[in-house]
Amino acid sequence: MDFSFSDEQQMLLDTTRRFISERYDFDYRNKVRDSETGWSREIWTALGELGLLALNIPEQDGGIGAGAVGTMLVGNAIGEGLLLEPFLSSAVIATQAIVELASAQQREQWLPALASGELIAVLAHDETATRENSLQVETRAVRDVDGWRIDGNKSVVYHAPAANLLLVSARIAENDIGLFAIPHDAAGLQLLPCVTVDEQRAAAVLLQDVHVGADARLGGDAKVALQSVLDIGLAALCAEAFGAMQKILTATIEYSRSRVQFGAPIGSFQALQHRMAEMLMHLEQARSMSYLATSQCTDPDPLARRAALSAAKALMGQAARYIGQQAVQLHGGMGMTDELNVSHYFKRLLAFELRYGNTDRHLETYRQQLHAA
Amino acid sequence: MDLDFNAEELAFRDQVREFLATALPAEIRDRMHRSDDSHIRDDIQNWQKILHAKGWGAPAWPVEFGGTGWSKTEQYIFETECALADAPAQLAFGVKMVAPVLMRYGSPQQQQYFLPRILAADDWWCQGYSEPGSGSDLASLKMKAERDGDEYVLNGQKVWNTLGQFADWIFCLVRTDSSGKPQRGISFLLIDMKTPGITVRPTRLLDGTFEVNEIWFDNVRVPVSNRIGEENAGWTYAKFLLGHERTNIAGIGASKRELARLKQMAAAQPKAGATMLQDPLFATRIAQVEIELRALEITNMRVIFAEAKKQAPGPEASMLKIRGTEIMQRLSELQMEVLGADALIYRDTSGEIARETSTYLNLRKLSIFGGSNEIQRNIIAQMILGL
User: Which residues form the Acyl-CoA dehydrogenase/oxidase N-terminal domain (chain B) (predicted)?
Assistant: First the structure.
């Protein structure tokens, strides 16, 4: 048992934090939010220069190969800074899908461009049916003369409007899923952009008679790989959520020390102290579960992985809700304003709860393995 | 970062497991498994003697006093495995509470006399801290100790004294000065329970058991040489003592054992053509507590790891105490609920008390004793959050 981080890992965290504090303070972040695209190309390129977009690219492909722990630490910093750029979508999830499934030629074509930030890819996977079962894909791909024809609807795909490349999952047989690389300007592909509750840009993706060549399909067993990619993504999402939880608790404690009512800082009142002690306990339990998710997300045994990740998501979802709600409450009216960062962390945490299967879904998944075991 | 035990830690765990499988007498294991405390004194003492013979009588003591010299991780593994194997918990009052105080502040004579006897289970120790009116506000204690030559003369009353009905010795906080700040007039005395003037009266608890006592002191004469350290400095020693006994504060082993029992019970209990374990509502409640226990286990290991690296101040133990006791209470509540209306049976015709309901009642104490969970939240707010 060892809870320390290597020097390289610690450096990764420090570097990302320093970058965010220098380049991405709260005011800047809100300017990005209010911009037309809702993210910053300049920041994105800078992240690429720092090597952060190559974390999940293996060293033999010219990447950093920082693994789940490195990704977790960068995720922590991104959650702390409430970054709006597609780090999780492109540099973690889509990159991982390509690493696991792409041919040598596709890797060469995409990985360097992903590492520099020149190429942004997203995995378009979630549908109405995947809410219950992450591999319940209804989008269909059928063979035609020289390739595939794809039809279906994908819901709330984070950062799809920014992507050059969409990796679309589609059913190719009763019990088989394929993953298809589709350029953003393909005929028949339509995006319905939206802004998510945590003010990131996303889109519903409609595919109507989209034709792609035979080489658009990524090889390998997409069903197995998809679950692995989703699990690695979930661990990274947990890390971002933890960063946000930690920040919102710190902000709440600072506020309760400075806000005076009835002649005393509100932090001196026992009722509120106990609330914050409870928030801390939720936070520490969440940290432990984020560690668990990180250390298990690459476990080759899918059942052990499933149990650990569902446990983590369920507990962290509850922690996110408790900490978020109490933080707004303890800030009083100020917690309701857009001006204070607390409301922004609150919404990011709410999005965390709703994404990737909500708390109930993961509790349910975990419950099912109780009896199976 | 590696959440799993390393090879050496796993080898140590296997060694402990093997020892428990062979050395723990079946009848003790069986009684502990059934929560039968009818032989509790003998069971605890006999087990302590077996541990002592193995050289494991005091996991947390340094080797020079007869301890094992184990790391915090090894102590944690040992206690967890003991609980999982249904071994009786060691009597904390001797091994974990008064012994560290003796080692740090006791005179050489006190150390030489008492420590080997604690290790060999020759003496049963109990604690005399709380009084009527001074529980969480311990410094308000009133029991008087007046100096008369080489002796103190004690008058007053202690309450919530755990298992003192069996005790040979009691360590007490007494008031030797009432003039200044309440904390400054307290002394720490070791008292032979056979001393004339001591009366022990068991307090019947809500579950019908007798595990705590009231103790009256009526002109009890105690040699001054039985005082630990200096007169009026007892608060320092008491605080030191409270800072100890923390390796197992979260009770991970005991909770894992009770979780396994809960699942067995639920799998054996029919419900709507299936079992309670298959009932989505009830199983979700089990899942919830299992997830929290998993998180607490990792949190506990993080605290141990930080402590070994001398990083953790100590108030983290409050967190482990609160969550650990909440989880134990929830597990006992769910065990009771598996029984449904059968849980109403409190004593059956044979007079045997049904375990689950009585345990549920008994375990309400967990969030009250050892510094109530509200006091622990105060500690977290003040010591960790700096409020």
Answer: 7-120
